[in-house]
Amino acid sequence: MALDFLAGCLGGCAGIVVGYPLDTIKVHIQTQDHRNPKYKGTWHCFRTLIKQDSVSGLYRGMSSPMAGVAAINAIVFGVYGQTQKFLNDGLPPNSDHQLGGHFLAGASAGIAQAPVCSPMELAKTRLQLQDHDSAPRNGNQPRFSSPVQCLRHIHRTEGLRGVFSGLGITLMREAPSYGVYFVTYEALTRSEHPISTWHMLLAGGLAGTASWVVSYPLDVVKSRLQADATAKYNGALDCFRKSVRNEGYGCLFRGLNSTIIRAFPTNAATFAVVTWTMRLLGEDQPQKAPATQPKKEEHEVFKPSSRSWNAFDRYGESSCQSLHKIGDATNGYLHQLVSASLVLMPHASATAGNEVAAVAKTASVKQFDEARHFEWAREMVHY
Q1: What would the pLDDT profile of 178-202 be if each residue is shown by its tens digit?
Q2: What residue segments make up the domains of the chain, in order of their start?
Q3: Region 80-84 average pLDDT
Q4: By CB atoms within 10 Å of each CB, which of 7, 79, 178, 190 scores lowest?
Q5: Domain 1-130+141-284+375-381 classified CATH 1.50.40.10?
Q6: Who wins on pLDDT, 305 or 37?
Q7: Which of residues 344 and 26 earns the better pLDDT score?
Q8: How far is CA 312 from the centre of its chain?
Q9: CA-based nearest residue to 79, from 99, 117, 106, 118
Q10: How far, in whole angstroms, is CA 376 from its chain's centroid?
Q11: How far apart are the C-alpha atoms of 257 and 293, rounded to whole Å?
Q12: Which among 6, 154, 128 is positioned nearest to 64, based on CA atoms?
């Protein structure tokens, strides 16, 4: 379990560094005023931010997800790793039934990390929407220099409910998103041999892209709800209704292209780092069907039943039954003793009677079983 948490932490850090600038562009496009749009598209938004704030503007607010990436990705990969092991225990390797377990494990991981993720994304969104030389666009709030300062201000002005604004819609987004995320990666990397780094990168990028396509409309609602500092929306459902009524359903997919562009390299880096961490520490070996071991030949040694060693069986009312058992055992023992003797002395079988000759023909070439002989002798002594 500790390795799952460590791998998730390192993979999350790699993904944040690679994809954060495009995440900033996504948030700006999602939350701009539709009546007077500031950006014409992803490339125009990128050039505008670079012109206004230089490269640092693309990374504004990154300390919030970077500070929480250890906790978030440790929870995600830790919960996923343990849940999928539990759900897929006993199933044949690389079977189709395992994919359902991967989806449920991914959904469980998404739900588990949502209470940690939601406040961090709230601070990230508010920091991303701050202009370089002015206060935030929504309301007359002071400028925030760090995620902690932002969350403190929200808690002081809006209470604990304000800190967890958007938690419900975050839960609705994360469950299907992470389910698709992990099941896509597992489906693309099913192999009996270790996959290459290029295979990891391709599978991770496609998994991230698929998860965002599924959950993007919910992410738009979440971003608008968390960016709202003036109580414009009364919950996620009200935000959805007002957005669709004023802008149409197209608003739910605004900024999707920049998100997909960001999702591919971010998740490719995340899964590559996670997989290599697991592989280097020796716990990412491909699953193989257990090899069938040849069955060892077991000698049928007469062993008394568990009840035959108590006083009741030996001397009580069931002693007749015990005598029958020992009689049958003696008969079988003598039969095998004659067989073994005839094998050891082939000349004796030539002069033996018909019955003994028949026994000699069916006798296997085995040495005398001393263990069985000892068991039989011990049983006779006890009885």
Answers
A1: 999 999 999 999 887 888 999 999 9
A2: 1-130+141-284+375-381
A3: 89
A4: 190
A5: yes
A6: 37
A7: 26
A8: 56
A9: 106
A10: 55
A11: 54
A12: 128
Look at 130-134, 167-171, 280-284 and tell me which has the smallest mean pLDDT: 130-134
Contacts of 259 (CB under 8 A, 6+ apart): 22, 26, 212, 216, 219
Global pTM value: 0.63
Contact 251, 220 (CB under 8 A): yes
How much is the mean pLDDT over the chain? 76
The whole-number average pLDDT for the span 343-363 is: 50
Neighbouring C-alpha atoms within 13 Å toward the C-beta of 281: 12
Lowest mean per-residue pLDDT among 78-82, 85-89, 127-131: 127-131
- Tokens read off for 170: 């975050």
Measured CA to CA, the distance from residue 165 to residue 159 in angstroms comes to 10
Identity at 58, one-letter amino acid code: L
Token couple for 222: 């979440």
pLDDT of residue 54: 81
